[in-house]
Fold each of these.
Amino acid sequence: MRATVRQAARATIQLVVSAAMAFGSYIFITVLLITAIATAAVVGAFMVPETVLLIRRIAGAKRQQAGAWTGRKVPEAYQPLTGTVRERVRTAVRDPSTLTDFRWLVAYYAYGALPVLMLPLWPLGLVVDGVWCGLLRRRAVVLPLISRLADLDAHWSTVLLKPSPKAQLAVRVEELVQTRAGAIAAHGAELRRIERDLHDGTQARLVSLSMRIGLAKRAYDQDPEAARRMLDDAQTLAEDALTDLRHVVRAIHPPILTDRGLVGAVRALAASSALTVTVTVDGLTDGHDGPRAPAAVEAAAYFVIAESLTNAAKYSGADRADVHLARARTGLRVRVRDEGRGGADEAGGSGLLGMQRRVAALDGSVTVTSPVGGPTVIEVELPCVW
């Protein structure tokens, strides 16, 4: 009986909040009427986007409430209302989610009265269920109806507020446009970095190498010892140029990924880090023994871990970090954690923006949690088929 009362009390709070929101939606009818009249008179068309934004906020609050009760987030798919007044009006009218929200609002005027049915259930339930459960030791029959009312309210709201396929497609297209732009920007930045590395490093060394060999050829007949020293310097320059080329190649696609797989490459990366790095693996194997993610996914995960460890060593003040790799049903998950000072900011030049662009190009997601005082946790999900 005690658990039943607690559940009924929780459902009552849910229904009271729903009743307050329903009352607010009834008051909102005035705003809708004013907007409709002003729009019909042409002079008030500018009110349409603002009214739609208000409806979005009301619907968003209901989505959060329904999601909190059911434990399942109710998605939303809105097109941003930006630009001139004319563009905002056009977007507000043509957005499929506007019709979805308006349809829910009209329905909510009807089923928003569900909390009223709760009022007689409490006194009736306390009497009937008190006797039924307390004396006869049977299951409660009246008070659970309050929870069912809350379930019904949340279910109807979830069904009515769920974005239409057309709205989800429009948002998806917008996301792909943004990720495509980010991928192009990241690709351009990568090309400029490679060009700069080749120009400032490898090319300069090769020019110097050519000059040393030329000088050695001229000095060979007159001063063989000087020519030998120049050839020794030329050999050193050739080795340095090869080292620079290896760094450039690793930046494009680390050969160790091909040779040892992601797990082996990350372990090697951890061993060479300035921090003490602990690597844990779930569902992945070293080398080529087990299933592997696509090369692009492995490369993105490797660069995320490398960038995260570099940032931790430079900025966090931590002396250790943890790297976790996990194989999920839908892709690859990466988590890098350090116990440093925190406060990581993607606008601060720490490489987080480039990391997000690289992951977004593969339709993945990056979550950075870095409160001041630490810890900093970077979680990445990269979708792929195993």
Note: The mean pLDDT is 82.
Amino acid sequence: MKSIFGMTLEEMQAEFSAQNLEKYRAKQVAEWLYKKFAKSFSDMTNLPKDLRAALGAKYRIEKPTLRTRLDSADGRTSKFLLVFPDGASVESVLMRQPYGNSICISTQAGCNMGCAFCASTLHGLARNLTAGEMLAEVLFIEEMLSKEGEKVDTMVLMGSGEPLMNYDNVVCFLRLLHEKYVLNMGYRNITLSTSGIVPAIDDLAEEGMPITLSISLHAPREELRTDLMPINRKYPLADVVAAGRRYAEKTGRRVTYEYILIRDLNDGEREARELAKLLKGQTASVNLIPVNPVPERGFERPTDESVASFCSILAHHRITATVRREMGSDIQAACGQLRSRHMSAEEKLQ
């Protein structure tokens, strides 16, 4: 059976027209799937019973199930491990911010970028997620919030996986999320985080979706970044920053550069000065992130003094910088940690 969850309204209309069904039925089904969180065609009570049975025989509504949930002690962060029918698992996070409910979703099951500090890469890439599977992550949390009279306000594609290595599915997902018959989420409420896939950054700038681009740098010079992020061998630091500049010029959107601070590795005064020089003249800001230690990686958090000094040096050079406020550190909120903990021994060996 074909999966219907994740189809656009136009795709559903084409499917239904080919079966000589009325065009308006597609709109009804889309509303049930994306607004009313229907789990099966039998839930769609304004469709005739014979039509519900016929659709159920031809299409499947593929959604993940909740394997485990962790809630932070302050009640502001919840992390969900969701499992799809084929066994692929992903992490999604809800962060209750002062400005609204923000979610962080995964775009791949696992990751093959190999970043030295990240738990998501520990077991490699299982597979890409489809547009429908990414949407299912969002609507899982949206349905939960709707019962509290709330909704998802903003979203970051900053969970497991490299979004721009799953480019077509990610773009389809973002366009679907923007549709009025889904969540009608404004593109300016969306941030996409990338390790710096240069050709895809340029492609994204041409899509006409004014989303915020967040680029992971984590080092201000080539050799150090290569040690931390192997992708730097293919897309060097200088090319990545140039692509960020082009994105800002094309879209008019400020680019955010993420910089994970690791004790005695990239958190010194030298690195701060080099980063300021690298980003001089950019329409950009820096998001400083004290590393969330992953036991298998062995990196340590910087001292509060070194974080403050790093931020001060950037400010002195007129580079806008903020230190990310930590949320959910008590529930393994770093990408990949919860998934890794629940993977079977067999899965880890694959």
Note: The chain is about 35% helix and 20% strand.
